[in-house]
Design brief:
With 139 residues, the protein is an alpha+beta fold. The protein has helices at residues 12-16, 20-29, 44-50, 60-68, 82-90, 103-107, 122-132; strands at residues 3-10, 33-40, 72-80, 116-118. The radius of gyration is 14 Å and the shape is globular. The structure holds inosine-5'-diphosphate and magnesium ion.
């Protein structure tokens, strides 16, 4: 097991629905430590840069509109196998297919509105953390 960091977002749907507390509580209960935490309202350009790998996919316009809907909470989490473990806690992309008890199953509605983001690999975690946080913002 390796101690590492991952990047997480509480997406606009979960913020609007009042689930910040429950999700941050899950972060702490699962033993992650929080090294960066910031509310943000994303812009079209920030979203494009963040989701570059999806820019040319058919679902991208819907994803962009969703992420523009309202504020999000950006988080940098650290723990043993943090990248894989956070994705397990989130559940798979589609909330309807996500395992019972996972965050997406509990708080997501559909493939687009799925409550949370988590990096998919340690190297993308590093990129995503530095996309949103400067070294001074991280503890
Ligand atoms: P992930 O968030 O589980 O890593 P990705 O495939 O990286 O899933 O997709 C990024 C985000 O784009 C998803 O979390 C979801 O909000 C949205 N998304 C992914 N696939 C679809 C789709 O087929 N239709 C609509 N939205 C999608
Ligand atoms: Mg992804």
């Amino acid at each position: 097991m390796v101690r590492e960091r991952t990047f997480a977002i509480i997406k606009p749907d979960a913020v609007q629905d009042g689930h910040i507390g429950e999700i941050v509580s899950a972060v702490e209960q699962e033993g992650f430590t929080i090294h960066g935490l910031r509310m943000a309202r994303l812009t079209r350009d920030l979203i494009k840069g963040f989701y570059l790998e999806h820019l040319h996919k058919p679902f991208y316009p819907e994803l962009e509109e969703f992420m523009l809907e309202g504020p999000v909470l950006l988080m940098v989490l650290e723990g043993e196998d943090a990248v894989a473990r956070w994705r397990e806690i989130m559940g798979v992309t589609d909330p309807l297919e996500a395992a019972p008890g996972t965050l997406r199953r509990k708080f997501g509605r559909n493939l687009t509105r799925n409550a949370v983001h988590g990096s998919d690999a340690p190297h993308t975690a590093g990129q995503e953390i530095h996309y949103f946080f400067s070294a001074l913002d991280l503890v």
